[in-house]
From TrEMBL, chain B:
Pfam families for this protein: Peripla_BP_6
Family: Belongs to the leucine-binding protein family.
Keywords: Amino-acid transport, Signal, Transport
Descriptive protein name: ABC transporter permease
Domain of life: Bacteria
Biological process annotations from GO: amino acid transport
InterPro entries named in the record: BCAA_transport (IPR051010), Leu-bd (IPR028081), Peripla_BP_I (IPR028082)
Leucine-binding protein domain boundaries: 31-368
Protein's organism: Azospirillum argentinense
């Protein structure tokens, strides 16, 4: 059998595809973080907890009300987004005049509270969430068996990422939003309700975490720890991509997923630190991140 | 009247006297039990608060007192970090006068605590940790390994699956002390039964996504994929193996080398069905186990795992040994514990080897299909009883250097 760098091509392509799937989650979560940081200047440490909340809402909808996956995909982000709006109105909005650090500490504390509460009520082993019937089974690609559901995750996250990028960079609403972050007073003078826009943006960013949570539910156990397992990697992704850069977050998310996949082929033991090694190197060479601009 | 008074006084004096004679030997005038385990991480459901509840049940059964002195139960979280575990146990023993440390899942942490308790001559009752090294090269005169170990798991599941025709094995191993030992012990049993090991991959502890490791296992072409991991890691790997069609194709079979009842509960029978596993305890085996487990369930809402039931059993035996020895001095109680057979709802005619291994029957079980299960917690069908002497290593095999 021919090999590439001593690895059978099947294994290599298989791992790259898996990397792309993981990258989809990184991209979706770091996109939400980038939107929130770019527009509100808040480092949202509660993002992992809100991702977990998305998965739990989907699970609760299924087990208590019998509402299935497809409705959950719509409803859970709405619930999480609404929760985000409440958080922003009651807590975060009081901190905008202060240093970034206060927002970070507040959201970090919130994350601990939300995770602690779920851990208390649901334990740590997690709850099972079945794959929707429509997406059961998989395709034999010759080099690997691709579960249909994972294929769907890649497509769904690509669509959401592209749509978000388009909305912010190419539409009128997005232009207002970007203008409001540069000069809120001037934009307000044009008759645009800036505080409402900021609240809506936070709600939207958080809803993206909810979407990722619902997408993740059938793959991982719906567990209170799922957010904290992922959030550190996602922060590394955002830092590497450049804080606040939407394109940077998306591209780096997929890129690092692929890189992690490659590491799992060549040296599996290092697979959970490779992202941080890259982060250290990037920060040394380009402190603002790959796509960030110096402020 | 006076005679009666005098007699009463004499009786009272006698009672006080004999009580004092019994009381003298309890250090600090209290027996302090410290339950040290993972209370928030991936092993919290299989031990955690449940182990504390089980220990309290044992204490309640003796009336909360031993030799006239109160029994106190405290608990702490070692967070799966050996340094935290050994520091906590040192503080407990030196500062708080803790007489016995219970549970300590995570072999890495348990090996560290074993060093502390050996040095301090304190009793250590191990339920959660798996590595057979705890009664092997790392054995201690005051260390007791109770519910199961990697050797017993390997004998049970490893041999059973080779006999069924699963000859070639690939291991998916948790990358720390426990996983390595479970892989080593199982590989030895597989080879002994005439099978081969074609490879292994080591995954970091607490991995969220096993798919790439499973893919490697799949491309190895081995008939059996041995999961040398536990708790949350086992749950995730089984779930994802099912997603990637590893088992449905019929070419490969999963062997969960360490599966707890709490894992099966979290997975659901749809995913977990037909897994073969080895356990030291199952609640629905006889009336005595059922009665105790129902009592436990009334307090926690869950059926006990073998770790939780074992915590009860070991503490009960420990308290009996204090009663018999008339003291809570570590080495004296340890010697007494080894003399007495273990007979309770957990184990029948269990015996303790000089290296601290509690030898009792283990059970090979199969997880029921959803159609066979009558409801929540009705999960296992017991296929075979593995006699204790077959499951556990003898004193000579263990490699323990204590005088046998």
């Amino acid at each position: 059998m021919s090999t590439i760098f001593g690895i059978p091509p099947q294994a290599l392509f298989g791992q790259l595809l898996l990397g792309l799937i993981n990258g989809s989650f990184y991209a979706l979560l770091s996109l939400g973080l980038a939107v929130i940081f770019g527009m509100l200047n808040v480092i949202n440490f509660a993002h992992g907890a809100l991702y977990m909340l998305g998965a739990f809402v989907a699970w609760l909808l299924l087990t208590t009300a019998g509402i299935g996956y497809w409705w959950a995909l719509l409803l859970a982000p709405l619930v999480v987004g609404a929760f985000g709006v409440v958080l922003e109105k009651t807590l975060l909005s009081r901190l905008y005049k202060l240093d970034h650090l206060y927002g970070l500490l507040l959201t970090f504390g919130l994350a601990l509270i939300v995770e602690g509460a779920f851990r208390h009520f649901y334990g740590v082993s997690g709850q099972p969430y079945p794959i929707p019937d429509l997406l059961r089974g998989g395709q034999n690609l010759g080099f690997m068996f691709l579960p249909n559901y994972r294929g769907w995750v890649v497509v769904a996250s690509l669509v959401v990422c592209l749509a978000t990028w388009y909305a912010i960079e190419r539409t009128k609403l997005g232009a207002y939003l970007r203008a409001a972050t540069e000069n809120p007073v001037l934009v307000q003078a044009f008759g645009i309700n800036v505080p409402l826009m900021i609240t809506a943006t936070y709600g939207f960013g958080v809803a993206l975490a909810g979407v990722a949570g619902v997408l993740a539910a059938p793959i991982y156990q719906v567990s209170p720890l799922m957010g904290s397992n992922l959030i550190i990697v996602v922060f590394a992704v955002v830092v590497i991509g450049g804080m606040g850069s939407i394109l940077g977050a998306v591209l780096t998310g997929y890129g690092l997923g692929l890189l992690e996949g490659l590491t799992k082929v060549f040296y599996p033991e290092a697979s959970n630190i490779v992202v941080f090694v890259i982060m250290a190197v990037v920060l040394l060479i380009k402190p603002a991140g790959l796509f960030g601009r110096e402020r | 009247m006076i005679a009666r008074l005098l007699a009463g006084a004499a009786l009272a004096a006698l009672a006080v006297g004999s009580a004092q004679a019994q009381q003298g030997k309890i250090s600090g005038d209290v027996v302090k039990i410290g339950v040290l385990n993972d209370r928030s991480g991936l092993y919290a459901d299989l031990g955690g608060e449940g182990s504390v509840v089980a220990v309290r049940m044992a204490v309640e059964e003796v009336g909360g007192k031993i030799l006239g002195k109160p029994i106190e139960v405290i608990a702490a979280d070692h967070q799966n970090k050996p340094d935290i575990g050994s520091n906590l146990s040192r503080e407990w023993i030196d500062r708080d006068g803790v007489d016995v440390i219970v549970d300590v899942p995570n072999s890495g942490v348990a090996l560290a605590v074993q060093e502390v308790t050996r040095e301090k001559k304190t009793i250590f009752l191990m339920q959660g940790p798996a590595t057979s090294r705890l009664t092997g090269d790392a054995c201690s005169p005051t260390g007791f390994h109770w519910a199961y170990d990697t050797r017993a798991l390997a004998v049970g599941t490893g041999q059973a699956i080779v006999k069924e025709g699963g000859k070639s094995w690939f291991f998916l191993t948790a990358d720390y002390a426990f996983g390595h030992q479970l892989e080593t012990d199982t590989a030895a049993q597989v080879k002994k039964a005439g099978g081969t090991v074609v490879g292994a991959v080591r995954a970091p502890l607490n991995t969220a996504d096993f798919s790439s490791f499973l893919l490697q296992a799949q491309s190895s072409g081995a008939q059996v994929i041995g999961l040398a991991n536990a708790g949350g890691d086992t749950i995730t790997s089984i779930k994802q193996a099912s997603e990637f069609g590893l088992t449905q194709s019929g070419q490969q079979k999963l062997a969960g080398l360490l599966i707890f009842l709490s894992d099966v509960h979290a997975l659901g029978l749809q995913v977990a069905q037909d897994l073969v596993l080895t356990t030291g305890f199952y609640w629905d085996m006889d009336d005595e186990k059922r009665a105790w487990s129902e009592k436990y369930k009334a307090k926690t809402g869950k059926m006990p795992t073998m770790v939780q039931a074992g915590s009860y059993s070991s503490v009960k035996h420990y308290l009996k040994a204090i009663e018999a020895a008339g003291t809570d001095d570590g080495p004296t109680v340890a010697a007494k514990m080894k003399e007495m057979p273990v007979n309770d709802m957990f184990a029948k005619n269990g015996k303790i080897l000089p290296n601290g291994r509690m030898v009792h029957d283990m059970y090979l079980a199969r997880v029921k299909k959803p159609s066979e299960s009558k409801g929540p917690w009705d999960y296992y069908e017991i296929i075979r009883t593995i006699p204790g002497d077959e499951a556990f290593a003898t004193m000579a095999e263990s490699g323990c250097k204590l005088p046998g």
